[in-house]
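A favour, since you know our C-alpha cells better than I do. Go ahead and set the record down below.
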Amino acid sequence: MREYEIWAQGYSCTGSESGAIQLDTISASSFEDAVWAWLERDPTRALYFRQDDDGTMRYWGCELYDNEHDARTAFG
C-alpha cells in the first residue's frame, strides 16, 4: 500500500475554466484502487465518473492523474 494523490486535470469549456485540482490523497495498492476508494467515500461522485475502454478515468469529463505535473499539462 502507498499514498496516491488524485488530481483532476484543468479545463476550459463554454466560458468556464479551472486549473488542475487535487481531489484527495488515499492509501491503496494502485492508483485505480485509490480512485475507487475515493468514489466509495461519497457515492454521488459516481454519477460524474467514467472509465474509458483504455482505462482512462475521468471525473466531470476531466482526466484523473496521480500527480500534479501531469494534471496541469492541459489547461494548467
Observations:
- The chain is about 20% helix and 40% strand.
- The chain has a mean pLDDT of 93.
